[in-house]
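Tutorial handout. Part one gives the primary structure; part two gives the three-dimensional structure as tokens.
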Amino acid sequence: MHWVFLGIASVFEIVFALSANASKGFTHRWFSVLTFAAAAVAIYFLSLSLQVLDVGVGYAIWTAIGAVGTVIFGVFLFKEKLNLGKVASILAVIVGVIGLKAVSGH
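Part two.
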């Protein structure tokens, strides 16, 4: 279940980042509320996953999935540019996450 909890935490991490952007500096009330709620849910599920996972591995994977997901959704939702450097960096993060999972022993 710890990987499921980490997956849920990662989804809410992406929602947190995207809604923080959409809140426009917390000037849009409902996106601001969503930002705080998503952050709380993300941290709660991260804490559940860290009952089993090493904190360094769990946190690194959580932030990596959040970062990659935010970049991908940013392209579609906010029309952000995707270039070769971003794609290479995303691939490097994905390889790093796979490596962490492979050596974590969980």
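Part three, for discussion. The helical segments are 2-22, 29-49, 55-77, 84-104. The first helix runs from residue 2 to 22.
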